[in-house]
Amino acid sequence: MHTRLSAAFSREAEQAAARYAIGVLASEHRTASGTSSEAKILETDRGRYVLRRLSGTAQARREYRISEALQGQDVCPEILRTRGGERWFEIEEICYNVQRFIEPAAGGAEVADHAELGSVAGKLHAGLRSETTDGQPDRFDLERKWQAFLSSGTKPILQDPLILRLEEQVQLCLSEREELTDRTCIHGDLGKWNLIFGSRGVRIIDFGEARLGDRHFDLAALLTSTTDALEDRAVQYLSAYIEGYSRYADGFDASALARHIRSWNVRGAVALLEHTGINERSARYAARMLEQSESWAQRLRF
Predict the structure, then answer these.
(1) Distance CA 283, CA 26 (A)
(2) Residue 196 belongs to what H/E stretch?
(3) Among 36, 157, 214, 215, which residue has the fewest nearby CB atoms (within 10 Å)?
(4) For 7-16, what is each residue's pLDDT tens digit?
(5) pTM value?
(6) DSSP assigned state of 228
């Protein structure tokens, strides 16, 4: 039997409380964590939970399968089943799931321990070794993004030195794609923004971009979003990162990581320029991304 909830709660929060064994709602508020879905924290008399709005049944199915494959590995939050055993629920064809809340570290600290970052990535990839996906395409495919950028009204400045340098890097990344043949299930957007620095360690969230790809793409995203290649201790951080990863997953390749760092940073630069246009700030960011790629390649001796 369920207590009727206050009109102060959203419809989806009320439905979650009715469908899941999570207790009676006390409050709800939005969270900024994750990038592929809207999320709310639900506080009940039994604890805290995360209610997420998903893009559709494909994402709901994919995320549950990944959560199940990683259960007990201390990698990501557990996705709960409803009282009736469903993996998600729908309201007017909009899909939602409910996850356990990860208690943040004391003081909200987001300090990167590189051995731990490498370890959680290693556990992720080891756990997903046998997992398949539904063939989701890469939404940020570099070739498509570059063509969109070239069509965005930038033609008068195509001779700009930065754009020429960027085009050279784009073509290099595209030519290397055939060499990157390690295709397994990856997170697809493993930046710092999809990490929770919890009281019991780092956890990975938001598998909305999960797809088949090279594991070094995830490693590149995680490393470059948490570490500056120009830091004095960058080599020490990199060594701890690789060591942590290799405790749980095999097949690490320094040259593949260097190529994927370049691909990740070039994609980021192109996406930003397409979105904001070329101005002093975006040009500075793009130049820095290219510089970071070169520095990481040197650190990796590639």
Answers:
(1) 47
(2) strand 195-198
(3) 157
(4) 589 999 999 9
(5) 0.91
(6) -
Cα torsion angle, 221, 287, 270, 294, sign? negative
- CA 187 → CA 82, 157, 190, 213, distances in Å? 25, 35, 6, 9
Angstrom distance (rounded) from CA 91 to CA 88:
10
- Per residue in 161-177, pLDDT tens? 888 999 999 999 999 87
Domain spans of the chain?
11-101, 108-299
Whole-angstrom distance, CA of residue 292 vs CA of residue 231:
11
pLDDT at 3 over 50: no
Helices (H) and strands (E) in the chain, counts: 9, 9
Looking at domain 11-101, does it have CATH number 3.20.20.70?
Answer: no
| DSSP structure string for 115-182 | HHHHHHHHHHHHHTTT--------TT-HHHHHHHHHTSS-GGGTTSHHHHHHHHHHHHHHHHGGG---
Phi, psi dihedrals of residue 47, rounded to the nearest 5°: 140, -160
Q: What is the DSSP letter of 24?
A: -
CB 62 within 8 A of CB 185: no
Q: In one letter, which amino acid is 16? A: A
Residue with token string 């369920």: 2
Instruction: Evaluate the CA torsion angle 120, 124, 129, 130 in order and state its sign.
Output: positive
Overall residue count recorded for the chain in this entry: 302
